[in-house]
Amino acid sequence: MIATMAPFGHVSKITLTVKPDGTYVAGVGTSEFGNGTTTVHAQIVATDMSTELERVRLTNSDTDGAIYDTGAFASAGTTVAGKAVHAAAIALRTLLLRVAADITGSEPADCSMFPDGIRSPKRIVGSAEAMRACPAAHRGGDGAFARGDELGEFRSLAWKVHGVRVAVDTCTGAVRILESVHAADAGTVMNPEQCRGQGEGGVAQALGTALSEEVMLDEKGNLLTPVLRAYMIPQMHDVPETRSTSPRPSTNSPPSARNR
Q: 156 forms bridges with which residues in the sheet?
């Protein structure tokens, strides 16, 4: 079990803007460092706004776009900043549906988003028309916007099990991994490929911790492993093939999002 965030340990406040041409700009404070948060944030916007991934752009680590973010740690880019993106998208979607309903004399529940605007029972309201009708508090520059906050009030937990079958040379103590299987209960998976990759990376880290990585000190406390080549981090050939469960994507994700 891992607590992916402690209560009130991480905060994210973001903005989401829709442009007259139906493109979206999300101002997110967390940084992309190879963990795929940029992809996930774009998927969330595309799913919530019923648009195409190609119409979503992110501005990361920019205080002109994002209001505040504690920082990028482990999976917080998804579990915290991702929730803020989702909150902003839902707020903007609600705003646009209400505006389109007012323009056409319809009910918001009878309206729906699509890439170029909002469909109502009476007619289509384009993005630019809906934007002009938005309250002044939600207009700025050449777009209409909403904000979303994730204050981290609740602890987020993840569960994982990892089993290995090993062979041990009883003379030398050498250990060989013969089989490796792991599974994770990750809740709603936004991107299955990224989730599997993170799990497999965790397997490599676990094997290194258990079998080879160690900070060595002499009797006087002097460091004997001053460089990484002496610390023995597993290399690619040290990590066995691992069978992992196939995480199920979010049932709300459109096909284009599931494949990215």
A: 5
